[in-house]
Amino acid sequence: MAQNGILKSSLAKKYAMAATGLFLCLFLAGHLAGNLQLFTAGSDGGRQFNEYAKFMTTFPAVKLLSYLTYFAVLFHLVDGVVLSIQNRKARPVRYAMERPSTNAGWSSRNMMILGTIILVFLVTHMQNFWWQMHFGSVPMQTLEDGTQIKDLYFVVAAFFHPDNGFALPAIGLYLLGQFALGFHLWHGFSSGFQSIGLRHPRFSALVGGLGKAFSVVVPALFSAIVVFLYFTQA
Amino acid sequence: MNFTLKIWRQEGPQDEGRMETYPVTGISDEMSFLEMMDVLNDQLIRDGKDPVAFDHDCREGICGMCSMFINGEAHGPNRKTTTCQLHMRSFKDGETIYIEPWRAAAFPVVKDLAVDRSAFDRIIQAGGYVSVNSSGNPLDGNAIPIPKHDADDAFNAATCIGCGACVATCKNASAMLFASAKVSQLALLPQGQPERMSRVQRMVDQMDKEGFGNCTNTGACEVECPKGISLDNIARMNRDYLKSQVTGE
From the list A11, A87, A98, which residue is nearest B204 (CB)? Predict the structure, then answer.
């Protein structure tokens, strides 16, 4: 029974959802910390940011972490779809009259829609930067000692430059993605703790508050960076 | 008071069912919702029509038999109130009231507003008990010291009347609040410890087999529960089930 339960039971799927979701929260914090360098990266022509990007794409431990992140994203996605299908099947005949807003928050009822918007954003986001860095043609930056590194800062700055005709729609999609992320986290952060049973009268208010703060601050800072890049280059 | 009722009518489990409209007049604001339904049925019987089938028993909010999804909410608009304890003064004169059965694959409609909730019984049968050897000298339960807050939490969990409002209101038709209350009322007491891990496994497995949905922590169940069963119980069940899987007990 024990062997079956951990793979198949409804609770196991929730544990997986929570574990991957909370792991991805850690990833977001790390990604944001890296991106914050973009506020000052212009001052040295992006050199520090490019060295950071090189480290993040080549250092073995970070590479391992990145594979873990890809896996977490895919698992979170597939698990979410499976859960949604099962949940729809659990109520084959819908109510004629429903008033869901009287007893549950909007974001908690729309995690699938929010997740889908985040997925669309993620695909475009990875095509724009991750694909370019790994497989695309990125201009090289020559350092004082003659070594050459990929100039990711140039790619990012040029992408959000007012001269790029797609910059405004891209920023629009970016902000939409961050909005969806914020609402997804608004419910998801504390929900993850509940799913793995981490709830206690002494800590649940703290976890709830932390989740709300995280869901506002992280997307707001990500958004601020792209808006900053656009307007400082105007 | 006068009302327009839109009620789900379904001949039997195989019938497709449909919403039908009935006007009711001369309703006192002191009537309970079920008494209003009695007035409607009296009228239908006098007209030679089939009365509306609905579950009810004690009519004092403790048996868990009454149900009904009223105007988009389980047990109607009032909090911590069963349908039998809901009074017509909670509605506006002339209002249109939608009345539907609990909707869940695991709660098939028997007739009209009555659904089969025996899935809950099977979850209890799977492990919601304490095995006591009744021969010899059973230990007197009152002689076992139990911390006050554990006794209170166990009692609060035990106030679940098994009406199914949690399933009806959950957007996923999940039975987590019910199952977790029935797991918790025993998991918190010394007598529940020997079977604690196997109990949670068996009850969760049965819950999944019955075809209830998965919990997404919207918290709607806790809001709509007529007994105010807390989400703390769901977290406790999640914790116990995880522990039982990890330790393999």
Answer: A11
CATH number, domain with residue B69: 3.10.20.30
Q: Which residues of B, range 95-114, sit inside 8 Å of A by Cβ?
A: 98, 100, 103-106
Assess whether B167 and B89 both reside in one domain. no
Domain count, chain B: 2
Instruction: Answer yes or no: do B129 and B241 share one domain.
Output: yes
Q: Which of B215, B218, B248 sits opposite A109 (nearest CB)?
A: B218
Chain B residue with the nearest C-alpha to that of A83: B214
- From the list B103, B104, B156, B162, the residue with the least C-alpha distance to B128 is B162
Q: How far is CA A214 from CA A66, A172, A173, B126, in A?
A: 22, 22, 21, 41
| Res. B110: pLDDT tops 70 | yes
Question: For residues A71 and B132, what is the distance between their CA atoms, to the nearest angstrom?
Answer: 47
Domain ranges of chain A: 2-91+109-232
Q: Are residues B51 and B92 in the same domain?
A: yes
Full residue range of the structural domain in which residue B35 is found = 3-111
Q: What is the pLDDT of residue B133?
A: 73
Token pair in block for residue B23: 């006007």
Question: Shortest Cα distance from B61 to chain A (angstroms)?
Answer: 21
> B138 to chain A nearest CA, in Å?
31
| Dihedral pair phi/psi, residue A103, rounded to 5° | -135, 0
pLDDT of the residue at A185: 98
In this structure, the answer to whether residues B228 and B128 fall within a common structural domain is yes
Fold type of domain A2-91+109-232: 3 helical TM bundles of succinate and fumarate reductases (1.20.1300)
Q: What is the pLDDT of residues B113-166, one digit of tens each?
A: 999 999 999 999 999 999 977 666 666 778 889 999 999 999 999 999 999 999
Chain B partners within 8 Å of A8 (Cβ): 208
pLDDT in tens, A76-102: 999 999 999 999 999 999 999 999 999
B49 phi/psi in degrees, rounded to 5: -105, 165
Confidence label for A2 from pLDDT (cuts 50, 70 and 90):
very low
CA distance B49 to chain A (A): 24
